[in-house]
Amino acid sequence: MTQPLATESLNGKVALVTGSSRGIGADTVRYFAEAGADVVINFRNKAPRAEKLANEIRALGRRALVVGADLTDEASVKAMFDAVAAEYGRLDILVLNASGGMEANMGEDYALTLNRDAQLNVLDAASPLLGEGSRIVFVTSHQAHFIRTTPTMPEYEPVALSKRAGEDALRERIPSLAERGIGFTVVSGDMIEGTITATLLERANPGAISQRRESAGRLYNVSEFAAEVASAAVDPVPADNTRLIGDVSGFVAE
To answer: I need a labelling partner for 124 at 20 to 30 A (CA). Which of 27, 93, 135, 170 fits?
Structure first.
């Protein structure tokens, strides 16, 4: 991984990344810690992976708090931020990375519950810890960000619609966040090589990833995309609060 953030640029800062026991979330946590931040690693059911990552972070001389939480459970989310308050007393960076909806045997409304309702609840629960100058990053996909104008594969459409609903709901908070000096950026990426979503889409629609790779020219891998997410937490907030990563030529803007 190539570190996108300046050494010691996050000294004294605290960063929480939801869904950070593996994949994009884990690499984002690593980038923050390498830049000097103390971190909160959130997981739902991958405790051993989360603890292994925490040990990596501690070896860098940074603090790492590991907190299991089901983001669709308000009490679980409250307990997570109670733990953050007790350990650090503040939060400077919140990355809303965790999402889902393609898992088997979940309720009919699960995608919307996780990708919209839970995102708002996490933001609300974090709010008392966020001060002036803090940053929020919401991670999404082009297939979700552009879903109202560009169709996606049927297997992904329910997730895309729910993630766009989450993005819209979060965007409604931008004025009130700005009044408090809190920046908000949406990071939207193309399909990412090596993610669970890409694996599930390939399983449901064989050839989907290779077709998208050929169309786009290249696809970002997990660490490359995580570097963009980490950078979004420190770079100036774009005028439209949106950071588009990867090819967008096949998508129609609203």
So the answer is: 27
> Using one digit for the tens of pLDDT, what is the confidence trace for 68-96?
999 999 999 999 999 999 999 999 999 99
CA atoms within 13 A on the CB side of 103: 12
Closest listed residue to residue 158, CA positions, set 123, 200, 188: 200
Residue 91 near residue 134 (C-beta atoms within 8 A) = yes
130 closest CA partner among 95, 163, 164: 95
**Among 186, 200, 248, CA closest to 23:** 200
**Residue ranges in the chain modelled with pLDDT below 70:** 1, 102-107, 194, 196-198, 200
Q: Which of 42, 155, 163, 68 is nearest to 103 (CA)?
A: 155
Computed on alpha carbons and rounded to an integer, the radius of gyration of the chain in Å comes to 17
**Token pair of 243 as six digits:** 């950071």
207 contact partners, CB below 8 Å, separation of at least 6:
none
Residue 135 has φ and ψ, to the nearest 5°, of -135, 145
Q: How does strand 91-96 pair with strand 183-189? A: unpaired
**Structure tokens belonging to residue 99:** 């999402």
Is the Cβ–Cβ distance between 68 and 43 less than 8 Å?
yes
What is this structure's pTM?
A: 0.94
Contacts of 97 by beta carbon, 8 Å cutoff, 6+ apart? 17, 18, 19, 20, 24, 25, 28, 139, 229
- Residues 90/14, Cβ–Cβ less than 8 Å: yes
CA within 13 Å, CB half, 168: 12
